[in-house]
Amino acid sequence: METASTDRARGSAAEVFRVFLRLGLTSYGGPIAHLGYFRDELVTRRRWLSDSAYADLVALCQFLPGPASSQVGFALGLMRAGWAGALAAFAGFTLPSALLMLGFAMTAVQLSGPLGSGALHGLKIVAVAIVAQAVAGMAKTLCPDRGRAAIAVAAVAILAFLPGAAGMLAAIGLGALAGLWLGRGRGTAPMTDPRTRPRRTRPGRTGQPAHGGGGAGRLRGRALPFCR
Question: Would you tell me how many other CB atoms lie within 10 Å of the CB of residue 204?
Fold first, then answer.
């Protein structure tokens, strides 16, 4: 059951659309780069959810077929403003690229020749740099110790020597087994949202009221039906 503080902490579909429209206009690169932009804007800057909750969400969507960035964006909108927020996130993030692709397709013939080829080659190089920056930023959070870094390196090696769907499934399965083995006896931290945790107070001071919560905790109940 949601409380009044939870309602205040949640946003509106209009807010979600504005945020994701801005991301759609400024996020270059592929799905991996988009995940880095989402983390910078929604975790670090706006604090819609915690790093651990975002990592759980990315892991869930990476396990599913299809573009992970679209799934993560849809789920983030769902967590922030319900189903209307999910649709607003998808529309806001997808619409700019869809319109640009349409315009590019209509003018592709005019981009032939040395000038057009050089421009496209430059864009490819920039895309590599953007993806590398996104991966480096997320690696600091998702691979903070040697054990998890080793799992990531092993997954890269598997995909390098066994490309395609078989390699992806092998990397996911072996990564899950390695995570279970490394985490045995440690327990697991639940998916949390910074809004659900009470603020720390100094001795002698009255505690501040906790933020409205449940955004990331409701992910299993709301995002899972979408992801199936």
Answer: 5
- The span from the CA of 10 to the CA of 131, in Å, is 31
Instruction: Please state, in angstroms and rounded to a whole number, the distance separating the CA atoms of residues 147 and 171.
Output: 15
- Per 3-state DSSP, the chain is made up of helix, strand and coil in percentages (nearest 5) of 75, 0, 25
Amino acid found at 213: G
Helices of type H across 27-145: 31-38, 51-62, 68-107, 114-142
The two tokens of residue 52 are: 């651990």
Asked whether the beta carbons of 63 and 171 are under 8 A apart, the reply is no
137/144 Cα distance (integer angstroms): 11
Q: What is the pLDDT of residue 210?
A: 44
Q: Which amino acid is at 208?
A: Q
pLDDT digits (tens, 9 = 90+) for 100-118: 888 887 877 776 777 777 7
Taking the C-alpha atoms of residue 18 and residue 12, their distance in angstroms, rounded to an integer, is 10
- pLDDT tens for 31-83 read 888 888 899 999 999 999 998 899 889 988 888 888 889 999 999 999 999 99
pTM for this predicted structure: 0.59
User: What does the block give as tokens for 120?
Assistant: 């496209």
- Rounded alpha-carbon distances, angstroms, from residue 186 to 59, 64, 190: 20, 27, 13
What pLDDT, on a 0 to 100 scale, did the predictor assign at position 185?
A: 58
Six-digit token string for 20? 């994701």
Separation CA 122–CA 195 (nearest Å): 42
Count of alpha carbons within 13 Å of 8, Cβ hemisphere only? 8
